[in-house]
Amino acid sequence: MAIVDEAARLEAITSYDVIASPPASELQGLVRLAAMLCGVSKSVINIIDDRFQHQIAAFGLEPAVCAREDSMCVAVLAERAPIIISDARQDPRFRANPFVVGDIARVRFYASSPLVTPDGAIIGTLCVFDETVRDLNPDAQSGLDVLARQVIDVLELRRITRELTASNEMLTQFAGQISHDLRNPLTALTGFLELASDSPDIDRAPQAARSLAHAESAADRMAAMIADLLEYARRGSAAPHPQRVRLDEVTADVVADLGVPIAASSATITMDADLEVWADRTLLGVVMQNTVANAVKFAAATGVEPRVEVRGAQTPAGSLITVDDNGPGVPRELRKRVFDLMDRGNAEGVDGLGLGLATCRRIVQAHGGRIAIEDSPLGGARVRITLPNPPDLP
Question: Alpha-carbon distance 21 to 182, whole Å?
Fold first, then answer.
């Protein structure tokens, strides 16, 4: 189970938008099932932020809020493992807890399983308890863990649905506005490249012929990328068309297309991306081109020679892609905002409209994945992307 810092854990809680919302019927069904499975009178789903424990669904009692220091389930965050106690009065962690001594309740039997997000953050627990001393058999223990994973599945589905619904209208409008702006100059560029390639003197300039061939190939890839991206945007909520895609091949194409800015800034791009991911190839190319280009651009703006590292790894949570740079980084308070359309954070002095990361987020979310910005071991920013595993992987 991955260790996730507190800021990322709180960001995950915010992304689910369940605190202070009416209990979802799907979650109510899961807490009822947990109580029945374990043969107890009460069951709750707790979300624990930096100050409070929020019961977002409950069976056998009304959902409530308590201070984090009064919570029994906060122990699960520290131990990062399920906890099962036959009699809480006999456990030194809980014997003085207000839920045990009668200030809030008189809990005796207590069992909880952690709610672990796909990124490894523990955001709370699925908890069952009773006022009588009892034991929990191994099958019920395993069942409680399974139900805890189902809680996260419900929260993830609701998050993705909500975010896609909110972004689809804006993305469709954006697609209509930029279609001619992108296609017209590219069509003109392609025409000039074809004229140059057909020049009768081109055979006497082999280096120029090779450069023109590279430029035509890049223009063709760009045309396909624009067409697919605009079609994706116009489809609104329709899903991408994922397939097995080689991350190293996609990244190599991106580096080739970015040859001019990479050479101009003396940037060094390294790859450890021997990985197959389950993604729409064109849309993944858009994501990688934006993240690598940003890494080069922002590092170069500080006056250093940019260093960019692209890595990929298979994890139980999915395919993990990271793009690291040695640029100025992104302040923690801006890391969510830079994914908003037309928001460029604190990027004064760097060209661009602030569209790239907004597009990347929509594409990654449409794949059922997540994208975030973190500190990089290179000293700058890390873009961290998680995509679901291919369907034939567990």
Answer: 42
Q: What is the pLDDT of residues 321-375, one digit of tens each?
A: 999 999 999 998 888 888 875 444 444 444 433 457 888 888 899 899 999 999 9
Please give the sequence-ordered ranges of beta strands (E in DSSP) within 86-234, or none if there are none.
Answer: 109-116, 122-130
Burial label for 43, CB within 10 Å (0-12, 13-18, 19+), is buried
- Structural domains of the chain ordered from first start: 6-158 (3.30.450.40), 240-394 (3.30.565.10)
Tokens 């506005």 belong to residue: 177
Burial class (CB in 10 A: 0-12, 13-18, 19+), 96: exposed
Beta bridge partners of 127: 44, 112
Kindly tell me the burial class for residue 103, based on how many C-beta atoms sit within 10 Å of its own C-beta (0-12, 13-18, 19 or more): exposed
The Cβ of residue 314 has, within 10 Å, a number of other Cβ atoms equal to 14
The one-letter amino acid at 257: D
Q: How far apart are CA 227 and CA 349, in angstroms?
A: 30
| Amino acid found at 123 | I
pTM value is 0.49
Q: Hey, which bits of 197-291 come out as E strands?
A: 243-246, 268-272, 276-279
Q: What secondary structure does DSSP assign to 20-49, as a single string?
A: TSPPPHHHHHHHHHHHHHHT-SEEEEEEE-
Distance CA 54, CA 15 (A): 15
Query: How far is 337 from 254, CA to CA, in rounded Å?
Result: 26
DSSP letters for 86-100: S-GGG-TTTTT-HHH
Average pLDDT, the chain: 84
**Among the listed residues 362, 386, 333, the one whose alpha carbon sits nearest the alpha carbon of residue 163:** 362
Cβ atoms of residues 310 and 254 within 8 Å:
no
Q: Rounded to an integer, what distance in angstroms lies between the CA atom of residue 63 and that of residue 50?
A: 19
